[in-house]
Amino acid sequence: MQHTPRDPKILLITPTADMSADRHGGRAKCLQRLVRMELPLPTTVALSFACVHAIAQGRMPDMDEIMRHFGEAPLLSVRPSSQDPDWGGPGAILNIGMTDLRHARMCDEVGEEAATSLYMRFIQAWAVHVARLDPDSFHIPDHPGAEDLRAALAAYEAEADEPFPQDPSLQLCEVLRSMARAWEGTTARLLRQAKGAPADAGLGLVVQQMALGVGQGECGSGVIQFVDSLTGQPQVTGRYLSQSQGREALKPGAGAIYLTRDHRGPSFEDLCPEAFAELLRMGALCRVKLREEMQIEFTLQEGRLHVLDAVRVQRSSRASVRIAVALAEDGVIPREEAVLRVEPQALSELLHRHVDPSAPRDLIVSGIAASPGAATGRIVFTATAAQASAARGEPCILVRRETTPEDIRGMHAAEGVLTIRGGITSHAAVIGRGLGLPCVVGASDLTIDRKKRQVIAPGGRRLSEGEVITLDGTSGEVLAGEPAMFEAVLDGAFRTLLDWADDFRDIGVRANADTPQDAQTARNFAAQGIGLCRTEHMFFEEGRIGMMREMIFAKDEAARRAVLERLLPMQRADFARLFEIMQGQPVCIRLFDPPLHEFLPSDRAGMRDLADGLAVSLSDVEARVTALTEYNPMLGMRGVRLGITVPEIYEMQARAIFEATVQASREGDPVVPEVMIPLVSAMREVELVKARVDAVAAQVRTQSGVEFDYRLGVMVETPRAALRAADIAQHAAFLSFGTNDLTQMTYGLSRDDAGRFMSTYVKNGVYEEDPFHSLDLDGVGELLRIGAERGRAGRPDVTLSICGEHGGSRSAIEFCRRQGFDYVSCSPFRVPVARLSAAQLALAARGMRDFRVTLPGY
Ligand code: PEP
Ligand code: MG
């Protein structure tokens, strides 16, 4: 290749060099910024993506063009420079240029052991990463001497069939080639694509003069950062390896001393006060100029400080929030940028409920605490069962010997995961943490009795499928039942960040909350009300299920009404409590939805119990259960169909809602309840229910002498309701799309049974994703679009929302924003994530870029 001094693909990093992260990678661009800040960076040359790609194809650059910047017999390092540092890249290779000659010279300058150690480390790196030889043959002893070096060179020659290369230029050339090829390999590509890199993401390389940190006077190397990686609080941390500490210091991990004098023993701060002060100054400068918390890699050579590199401080989710907020509060970045910088998923990791430390614990077994937070649910043993359970709205804990990638959908569906095998890096643990799912692994004292569908704990205690257990993913304990919990509460930086997010977002976020506990969590997370309260869950409570059964068995309307009279005060108290907790925020109460037979026992023993309780014959019970059995209950007599056929149930619920409204409004903020009718498919259904609910409202107003308003709305969860939304909206102040049932009915896909074949379908690309997990924007989305359009045509001021499980996901929020929906409603723990996602989407729509990948210098 012709010598081209101004080859733009090979650039000496100077303040004015024409460089960008898009062409040379984030590291190269960041190094240029350090040069511009006049930080003492050794000579560094950047190779562009195009140059590195050409190298991978076998077209080498002019090596003289690179080498000429480094003077005679240089020692060099090469580091990767991908566009986003999270995309990774091949490991750095140091000490390129070590040869027999150079080694001999260095023995005089820095001592034989130090020189030999450097040479041997280069031989090792070269052998493993460039020549791809077996690493076992290149072990470096603690105090390497001449004999060890000779052995290493001989081992290389024996394995590689050629002597160790002695030409620095050729060494560099081969290092560049191996790094370029490593980037283009299939494994590396798949790994970075999993981190969000595009298929054709480029790699740049930076070649830098080594600043060794060995020699006369105080020499050493270190890293320093100015915040704690775990908490994000300001704190100087890092380590320093002093050569004067002895030759041990040259070994990685040995001889390290603390940077500050807050610890026992010698500190860098005491050893080199001037360099320490200078590093503090540089850190502060980087923070402002690079608008980030950086970790600085440095060496000290004969008292002179060199900055080799600066990278974004590694940080926990908690620290990422704290750092973004602190940067904005200090005026380094605008608030918008702070909001854009935090990954919404990071919040969910921080928002876990935990077991009340003072609550009694019925310990079943202990394992490894693999993912924090506590989760309660019924035991299930397969991913399919977990999906079915979630589709029924029953929280579950997936118990497996160990999980495999096949289980991922089940893990998504479960509240928590318990495994018998595996450690902190096992599949279950890694995925659990990724999902923010409480997880206990390696509970090896448990066994699973597959036949009986039970887990057997130490001492022979057995727990069957369906029994409720609690995982404490923070302590690693597995507990029977549901101990008292403390809800996670946002505070400090989280609250600030979410307050800022609320200033930017343009769609409401409510919570699906059925119990006072859910409502309290929703309130803590600043949900703007309850978007869906599934009232049937209230009837499964102790003491009520019996009454429900009595009602179902009632001979006639009068008998039924008598039982409902007894249920009324309980429902009233339920609603009053929700109103009280929500303090005047809207609360949307869905009238009774499931088929009645769900309240009846399914086995003979249960029926016998019921017969005893009701003082009727077993055959009576059996006959009634048979009479209520439906071939397809999800499409049978449930929701509004029940409301019209057995109207006294809805009447009781309406009365409970309005009486609670009167009571709560007397005691606190005025309440405007929202009453929602489920499973509507025809306008007439709404007319009929509305007439009855209006009548109940009028009665309660008269009886109480208190005026109140309420809003009646419809849950759009059948395709016909979406298609007929214009008619339906005539009688509905709001339409809330129930995308769980709507997905079920749009696909003709049973929520309870789809788990059986879902993974095969996804694996074969039939569905891109499980549509119950990720909203199908094409099909179900089209119905939502049609429903929203027609709903608005029927009633221009109709309130539109979504309340299926999809409500908290980014793609659903994006869709709802675009369609001009008023709010999304999701489970309480997803509320903060939804608030942040909604803000980020609104900012993106305003043209703000995603700062997580476009940060200057990254
Ligand atoms: C729905 O169908 O989307 C919904 C929210 O209701 P449920 O899950 O209770 O059927
Ligand atoms: Mg539904």
TrEMBL record:
<dbReference type="GO" id="GO:0050242">
    <property type="term" value="F:pyruvate, phosphate dikinase activity"/>
</dbReference>
<dbReference type="InterPro" id="IPR000121">
    <property type="entry name" value="PEP_util_C"/>
</dbReference>
<feature type="domain" description="PEP-utilising enzyme C-terminal">
    <location>
        <begin position="493"/>
        <end position="841"/>
    </location>
</feature>
<dbReference type="GO" id="GO:0046872">
    <property type="term" value="F:metal ion binding"/>
</dbReference>
<feature type="binding site">
    <location>
        <position position="717"/>
    </location>
    <ligand>
        <name>Mg(2+)</name>
    </ligand>
</feature>
<dbReference type="InterPro" id="IPR008279">
    <property type="entry name" value="PEP-util_enz_mobile_dom"/>
</dbReference>
<feature type="domain" description="PEP-utilising enzyme mobile">
    <location>
        <begin position="394"/>
        <end position="476"/>
    </location>
</feature>
<keyword id="KW-0479">Metal-binding</keyword>
<feature type="active site" description="Tele-phosphohistidine intermediate">
    <location>
        <position position="427"/>
    </location>
</feature>
<feature type="binding site">
    <location>
        <position position="740"/>
    </location>
    <ligand>
        <name>substrate</name>
    </ligand>
</feature>
<keyword id="KW-0670">Pyruvate</keyword>
<feature type="active site" description="Proton donor">
    <location>
        <position position="803"/>
    </location>
</feature>
<dbReference type="GO" id="GO:0016301">
    <property type="term" value="F:kinase activity"/>
</dbReference>
<dbReference type="InterPro" id="IPR015813">
    <property type="entry name" value="Pyrv/PenolPyrv_kinase-like_dom"/>
</dbReference>
<dbReference type="InterPro" id="IPR036637">
    <property type="entry name" value="Phosphohistidine_dom_sf"/>
</dbReference>
<feature type="binding site">
    <location>
        <position position="738"/>
    </location>
    <ligand>
        <name>substrate</name>
    </ligand>
</feature>
<feature type="binding site">
    <location>
        <position position="741"/>
    </location>
    <ligand>
        <name>substrate</name>
    </ligand>
</feature>
<feature type="binding site">
    <location>
        <position position="534"/>
    </location>
    <ligand>
        <name>substrate</name>
    </ligand>
</feature>
<dbReference type="InterPro" id="IPR010121">
    <property type="entry name" value="Pyruvate_phosphate_dikinase"/>
</dbReference>
<comment type="function">
    <text>Catalyzes the reversible phosphorylation of pyruvate and phosphate.</text>
</comment>
<keyword id="KW-0808">Transferase</keyword>
<comment type="similarity">
    <text>Belongs to the PEP-utilizing enzyme family.</text>
</comment>
<dbReference type="Pfam" id="PF02896">
    <property type="entry name" value="PEP-utilizers_C"/>
</dbReference>
<protein>
    <recommendedName>
        <fullName>Pyruvate, phosphate dikinase</fullName>
        <ecNumber>2.7.9.1</ecNumber>
    </recommendedName>
</protein>
<keyword id="KW-0418">Kinase</keyword>
<dbReference type="InterPro" id="IPR040442">
    <property type="entry name" value="Pyrv_kinase-like_dom_sf"/>
</dbReference>
<feature type="binding site">
    <location>
        <position position="717"/>
    </location>
    <ligand>
        <name>substrate</name>
    </ligand>
</feature>
<feature type="binding site">
    <location>
        <position position="590"/>
    </location>
    <ligand>
        <name>substrate</name>
    </ligand>
</feature>
<dbReference type="GO" id="GO:0005524">
    <property type="term" value="F:ATP binding"/>
</dbReference>
<dbReference type="InterPro" id="IPR013815">
    <property type="entry name" value="ATP_grasp_subdomain_1"/>
</dbReference>
<feature type="binding site">
    <location>
        <position position="741"/>
    </location>
    <ligand>
        <name>Mg(2+)</name>
    </ligand>
</feature>
<feature type="binding site">
    <location>
        <position position="739"/>
    </location>
    <ligand>
        <name>substrate</name>
    </ligand>
</feature>
<keyword id="KW-0460">Magnesium</keyword>
<dbReference type="Pfam" id="PF00391">
    <property type="entry name" value="PEP-utilizers"/>
</dbReference>
